[in-house]
Amino acid sequence: MQIRNNGMRFGTVAHVLHWGMFAVFIALFVSAEIMQDLPKGEERWALYGFHKSLGVTALFLVFLRLSWRGLNPLPEGSGNNPAWQRSLAAAVHLLLYVVMLVMPLSGYVMSVAHGYGIEWFGLWELPDLVGKDEALAEQAKQLHIYSSYGLYALVGIHAGAAMWHQFVLKDGIMQRMLSVKNPLTD
Ligand code: HEM
Ligand code: HEM
């Protein structure tokens, strides 16, 4: 098992963070869709609480992921791909990180500015870093909603590109994010 990244592929820690966060994001989107349709009551608030706690978890995971990324070499772009494609991939990755930060931060501001506290899975009460401010809460809500559309679009481009590498170019890029041997580079 290769724990760290090297110049050719991502290591196990990066794989676990990438796919673990993928699962967390699916749970966030599913809980967001369901919670808004529930009638007002305990069930609805419990699901809001779950969504908020998981969103805070995502924020910690993205910090962890960025730190690990800073401490490891980044696999180089495949030499077979033109420079514009490598630049486009790097730009999409950068934007994904931006949205991965904006989503939980706007969620935090929206909740706290509305005057609702945030308890992380009932274990830890987060400090209220902004005061009650309905106008700010509404702006943060719009940002949360529009960046969720941005995330859909970016993940669509990103996952589509991964499939194109896997099934059309067959160049081993997908294996760099999977814990299986890469026939081209291992
Ligand atoms: C990466 C993290 C997150 C993702 C991907 C995410 C995703 C979403 C999505 C897709 C929606 C539905 C938006 C719509 O109306 O179309 C939503 C709503 C919401 N999210 Fe998040 N969320 C995240 C983090 C958070 C956090 C950290 C909080 C609060 C602490 C939060 C609080 C809320 C609330 C209160 C709503 C409902 C807004 C309303 O009443 O319309 N979210 N979220
Ligand atoms: C079916 C879904 C997905 C597939 C097939 C996929 C596939 C991949 C692959 C193959 C790579 C490595 C690219 C390379 O070696 O240059 C990668 C990197 C990356 N993926 Fe995904 N991914 C998916 C979902 C997601 C999601 C949901 C996010 C974030 C919300 C995400 C964020 C990233 C980021 C930021 C990188 C760059 C890693 C870094 O430089 O730190 N991916 N993905």
Low-pLDDT segments: none
Compute the CA-based radius of gyration: 19 Å
According to CATH, the homologous superfamily is: Cytochrome Bc1 Complex, Chain C
The 3D shape can be described as elongated
What kind of oligomer do you see? Answer: single chain
CATH topology-level name? Cytochrome Bc1 Complex, Chain C
How many β strands by DSSP?
Answer: 2
How does the SSE layout of this entry go?
Blueprint: H1 12-37, H2 42-71, H3 83-113, E1 119-120, E2 124-125, H4 134-169
Antiparallel strand pairs: 1-2
Helix pairs in contact: 1-2, 2-3, 3-4
Bound molecules: protoporphyrin IX containing FE (2 copies).
Give an overview of the whole structure.
This protein has 186 residues and is mainly alpha-helical. It is built from four helices and two strands; from the N terminus they run αααββα. It has one domain (12-177): Up-down Bundle (Cytochrome Bc1 Complex, Chain C), CATH 1.20.810. The protein has helices at 12-37, 42-71, 83-113, 134-169, and strands at residues 119-120, 124-125. It has a two-stranded antiparallel ribbon with strand order 1-2. A hairpin with a 3-residue loop joins β1 (119-120) and β2 (124-125). The protein is elongated. Residues 18, 22, 25, 69, 74-75, 89, 93, 96-97, 100, 155, 158-159, 162, 173-174, 176-177 line the site of one protoporphyrin IX containing FE.
